[in-house]
Amino acid sequence: MTSTLLQAAYKAIDDKHGEDIVVLNMEGISLLADYFIITHGNSDRQVQAIARELQDVAVKEGHEIRRVEGFDGARWILVDLGDVVAHVFHKDERSYYNLERLWGDAPQLDIPQA
């Protein structure tokens, strides 16, 4: 189930042209989720569109949305889908927070595009 959720979330981000999509395998590293997906958009509107698409796809596929944070500000939106947590940044914020470096112990996964 997690792999289908992960693939659906990746496709949702890609469909809305999320940039530099990185998937981190957090199993055994974080208790928060099995996978983090990190991406960014180039405007507030695009960041919100990516987050909205993630939610729409999750609901359509029958997955629970546990929480969404930061939607109104559109600088860093966190979409918690349980085993998968998506971090959708505004491009100006992504390098500042640099989650890829913060979670540098986590192996990156290559998700084939559907």
Automatic annotation (TrEMBL):
Gene3D superfamilies from the UniProt entry: Beta Polymerase, domain 2
Organism this protein belongs to: Lysinibacillus contaminans
Keyword annotations: Cytoplasm, Repressor, Translation regulation
Name the UniProt record assigns to this protein: Ribosomal silencing factor RsfS
Subunit annotation: Interacts with ribosomal protein uL14 (rplN).
Xref: SUPFAM superfamilies: Nucleotidyltransferase
Family the entry assigns: Belongs to the Iojap/RsfS family.
Chief localisation class: cytoplasm
RNA-binding keyword on record: no
Function: Functions as a ribosomal silencing factor. Interacts with ribosomal protein uL14 (rplN), blocking formation of intersubunit bridge B8. Prevents association of the 30S and 50S ribosomal subunits and the formation of functional ribosomes, thus repressing translation.
